[in-house]
């Protein structure tokens, strides 16, 4: 799209539609997402700084106790009740029509080509297919016909195998021809509703027809000389990153004589405050008051920074601002998310993160695309751990038209003149936040180049469970003393395979440098 003369929005929209075909385990037509956009002044659009909220939405028949009342097993992850109204198609078309420059047919063609001509499965897709097959029982062709036939290629997929998805191609062609109507009304909409309702869901044609995209102001906050544009609620990404960086800046993190272990301790303590607040305060601002200003205010950040003990970590109740009724929560370890970063020749940038929640979403597919199980990002059972061991705040209970709390963190960083210097984001549930944050700190604070910034080993702490998880790169002999020092500060160390999968672009005086996370493979496109 960039070579055709398109801008960053054209490229992001085209890429997202292609991802729907080649990453059906992560995102796609049946999901939702967030897009942060920064475009320089031009005669068509003027200067654009905006964010698009096309998060999936609870159907009109949703109720706060819908998962407490149902007897359907795994209702919030694997039944029709798990499926929220998809927003991706509406969001992408809105982005293209409002901020793009190319026509719909041009932008959808690469996805149609990928679905018709096929694409070569990579190891990540083959592994995801194998894991999905293990969950489908003995007769997947009967119980999950579209997932089995269209998405999983009727069985094991080997790396290098050509995979086609003709049914999804016809849906994409319908969207190219008819726009939003190709998905939210007519045949495709009826198939979505029928399939979901047969699986115990409550979705209606009206829910689909009434889906609304929202343009919102990005969450803007400073760190050092830079301005961050993050995603506001119902994403927790922007606020959690803003709070973490705001606390860090009010500690000795950046003093010249602060050691590596001291910096790590201060980062972890800041994350624990921000994640504790995430669990209590963050939800859909269209339904509850979310105190974003308070959580990112100088006074509040200074109070939280002052709580940090430089010589020992604290017990969980010392973090964040509690209110009665908030419980400790663990966060879902999802893998059904994908991030893309784009920058164009004019310095326009898009950070876009999309999801169907867990791998292959609800595992209910229609016409070659998977329907999300985003309802599981709501608080599903009050005061009680859900299927993932989560206990969450009541602010995030399902309600008609409400959007579940997300961790997706599409982020654009600007310099003092408003020029884009970095575009980043990640997949990986709550590790999206810690992954994106550490990669941006590597670039902005440590001066690393894009590839090292993404490849460097990362850590993760989300306040609950109270465990500091280290990637394999931090578990070798070379870091033995570092780990002992962290333990001496009271941190309980654990292990984690990957702290998110981050896609990064850095722009400096020498040019544009992009890096795909080696944790999931892939290479940057363009140059
Ligand atoms: N479903 C993953 C997220 O939105 O955080």
- What is the CA-atom radius of gyration, in angstroms? 22 Å
- Helix fraction, binned, reads 25-40%
Number of domain modules: 2
Low-confidence stretches: 323-333, 385-390
Net shape: globular
Distance between the termini: 13 Å
Query: What's the total number of strands?
Result: 18
Briefly note the structural class of the backbone.
alpha+beta
Mean pLDDT: 94
Strand content: 15-25%
How are the strands of the biggest sheet laid out side by side? Answer: 6-7-12-13-17-18
The main pleated sheet reads as: 6 strands, antiparallel
Task: Explain how this protein is built.
The protein is an alpha+beta fold and 527 residues long. It folds into 2 domains: 269 residues, no CATH class; 225 residues, Orthogonal Bundle (Serum Albumin, Chain A, Domain 1). The chain has 19 helices and 18 strands. A 6-stranded antiparallel sheet has the order 6-7-12-13-17-18. A hairpin with a 2-residue loop joins strand 10 and strand 11. Helix 5 runs antiparallel to helix 9, helix 13 crosses helix 14 and helix 13 packs across helix 17. It starts with 7 loop residues before the first helix and ends in an 11-residue tail after the last strand. 55% of the residues are buried. About 3% of the residues have low confidence. The structure holds glycine (GLY).
Key words describing this protein structure:
about 525 residues, six-stranded antiparallel beta sheet, five-stranded antiparallel beta sheet, binds glycine, 2 domains, alpha+beta, Serum Albumin, Chain A, Domain 1
Helix/strand layout:
Blueprint: H1 8-22, E1 32-39, E2 48-54, H2 66-69, H3 75-78, H4 88-99, H5 104-117, E3 119-120, H6 123-133, H7 140-143, H8 145-151, E4 162-163, H9 166-178, H10 181-184, H11 186-198, H12 205-209, E5 214-216, E6 219-223, E7 226-230, H13 237-249, H14 260-281, H15 292-295, H16 298-307, E8 336-343, E9 349-357, E10 364-366, E11 369-371, E12 411-414, E13 420-427, H17 431-444, H18 450-455, E14 459-460, E15 468-470, H19 480-488, E16 493-495, E17 501-508, E18 511-516
Parallel strand pairs: 15-16
Antiparallel strand pairs: 1-2, 1-9, 2-5, 3-4, 6-7, 7-12, 8-9, 10-11, 12-13, 13-17, 14-15, 17-18
Helix pairs in contact: 1-4, 1-5, 5-9, 13-14, 13-16, 13-17
Residues 334, 337, 355, 357, 377, 406-408, 429 line the site of glycine (GLY).
């Amino acid at each position: 799209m960039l070579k055709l003369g398109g801008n960053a929005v054209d490229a992001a929209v085209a890429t997202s539609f292609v991802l729907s075909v080649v990453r059906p385990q992560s995102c796609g037509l049946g999901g939702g997402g967030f897009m942060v956009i920064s475009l320089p002044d031009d005669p068509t659009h003027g200067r654009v700084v905006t964010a698009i909220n096309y998060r999936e939405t609870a159907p009109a028949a949703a109720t706060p106790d819908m998962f407490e009342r149902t007897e359907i097993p795994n209702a919030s992850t694997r039944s029709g009740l798990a499926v929220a109204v998809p927003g991706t198609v509406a969001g992408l078309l809105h982005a293209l029509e409002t901020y793009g420059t190319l026509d719909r047919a041009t932008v959808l063609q690469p996805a149609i080509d990928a679905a018709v001509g096929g694409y070569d499965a990579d190891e990540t897709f083959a592994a995801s297919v194998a894991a999905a097959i293990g969950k489908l029982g003995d007769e997947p062709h009967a119980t999950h016909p579209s997932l089995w036939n269209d998405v999983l290629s009727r069985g094991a997929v080997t790396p290098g195998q050509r995979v086609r998805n003709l049914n999804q191609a016809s849906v994409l062609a319908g969207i190219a021809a008819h726009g939003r109507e190709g998905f939210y009304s007519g045949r495709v909409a009826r198939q979505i509703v029928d399939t979901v309702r047969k699986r115990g869901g409550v979705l209606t044609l009206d829910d689909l027809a009434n889906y609304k995209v929202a343009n919102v102001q990005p969450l803007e906050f400073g760190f050092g000389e830079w301005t961050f544009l993050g995603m506001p609620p119902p994403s927790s990404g922007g606020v959690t990153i803003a709070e973490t960086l705001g606390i860090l800046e009010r500690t000795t993190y950046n003093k010249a004589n602060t050691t590596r272990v001291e910096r790590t301790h201060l980062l972890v303590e800041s994350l624990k405050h921000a994640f504790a607040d995430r669990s209590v305060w963050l939800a859909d601002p269209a339904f509850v008051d979310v105190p974003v200003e308070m959580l990112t205010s100088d006074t509040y950040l200074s109070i939280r920074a002052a709580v940090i003990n430089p010589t020992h970590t604290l017990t969980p109740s010392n973090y964040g601002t509690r209110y009665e009724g908030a419980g400790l929560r663990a966060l879902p370890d999802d893998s059904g998310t994908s991030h893309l970063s784009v920058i164009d020749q004019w310095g326009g940038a898009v950070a876009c993160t999309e999801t169907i929640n867990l791998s292959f979403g609800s595992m209910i597919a229609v016409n070659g695309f998977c329907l999300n199980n985003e309802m599981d990002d709501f608080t599903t059972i009050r005061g009680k751990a859900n299927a993932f061991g989560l206990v969450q705040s009541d602010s995030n209970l399902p309600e008609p038209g409400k959007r579940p709390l997300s961790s997706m963190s599409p982020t654009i960083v600007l310099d003092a003149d408003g020029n884009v210097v970095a575009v980043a984001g990640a997949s990986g549930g709550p590790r999206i936040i810690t992954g994106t944050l550490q990669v941006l700190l590597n670039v902005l604070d440590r001066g690393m180049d894009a590839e090292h910034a993404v490849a460097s080993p990362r850590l993760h702490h989300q306040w609950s469970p109270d465990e500091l998880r280290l990637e394999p790169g931090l578990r070798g002999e070379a870091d033995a003393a570092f780990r002992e020092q962290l333990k001496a500060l009271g941190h309980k160390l654990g292990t984690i395979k990957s702290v998110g999968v981050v896609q990064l672009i850095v722009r400096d005086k020498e040019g544009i440098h992009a890096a795909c996370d080696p944790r999931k493979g892939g290479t940057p496109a363009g140059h």
